[in-house]
Every structure is written in C-alpha cells, then in structure tokens.
Amino acid sequence: MVKPARDVLPPLELLCLNALWSLGEGNVRDVRQIVAQARPLAYTTIMTVLDRLVRKGKITRRKMGRAFLYSPQTTRDSMRRAAIRELLDSFFDGSEEQLVVFLRRSGEASAAARAAAPGEPDGRIDTVLL
C-alpha cells in the first residue's frame, strides 16, 4: 500500500524553504549561504534539495542567464497549518481541544517547576527593572 505524501517537509527541505522565504528569490549559491549558517552543505546538496522542492510544488524556478532563480510558492502560514494539522492528527486524535488542554497542563507544570526553583531564570523579562 502506498503512503500518502506528507505536507510537512523534512528538516533540510524546510531549512532551504526558510532561506527562500527570507530571500524572496535566490539562486543555489544564495540559499547555500543562508543554510551554511546552520549546516555547511555542498552546493550540489542544496541544488538537489531545491529540485525536490520544485517537484513537490513548494517552490518555482526560472532560468536567468546560466542559473536558475528559485521562489517560494507556499507561505510560512500554510506550512505551519500543515504541521499543526499533522500534530493534531498524530497525537491528539484531530482534537484541537485536547491540544489546548495538553498545552495548559504543560504550562502549569513549567510554572510549578519555576516556582520550586526560584534561583533559576525562567526566560521572562523582569518588569520591576523596566
């Protein structure tokens, strides 16, 4: 039996798509420069990943001289919605309410842990100093 294609991209494809979202449009070298900040990868690896994204319809490419220019065809929000939908379907039986309950409980547990260890910074800004 053939599995349906996932809407959520693998990490490396998402990294390249994030680069294109920040660029708006770019060639392989442009994308590689941004991706290299997180993962130094070969030019040909980035080229292969961009080709996969074109085949999946997530980006487009057009010829400009001897190079291709790539542009995103999907938005961050649509990718976020797909990721949240997959999370809901996989872990919460498709129920948004179950996710909200889980997040509330997690937040309460985190607050309780911070209260139990008052010397630990909790990542929030101290408004007394403002």
Query: Rg from C-alpha positions?
Result: 20 Å
Q: Structural class, judged by helices and strands? A: mainly alpha
Number of individual domains: 2
Gap from first CA to last CA: 60 Å
Here the CATH topology of the largest domain equals Arc Repressor Mutant, subunit A
Structural shape: elongated
How do the SSEs run, as a string of H and E? Answer: HHHEEHH
Main sheet: strand order: 1-2
Task: List segments where confidence is low: pLDDT < 50 over at least 5 consecutive residues.
Answer: none
Query: What percentage of amino acids are in beta strands?
Result: 5-15%
CATH architecture of the largest domain: Orthogonal Bundle
Q: Give the overall average pLDDT.
A: 88
**In percent, how helical is the residue content?**
55-70%
Count of DSSP helices?
Answer: 5
CATH superfamily of the largest domain: Winged helix-like DNA-binding domain superfamily/Winged helix DNA-binding domain
The largest β sheet comes out as: 2 strands, antiparallel
The total count of strands amounts to: 2
CATH hierarchy, class of the largest domain:
Mainly Alpha
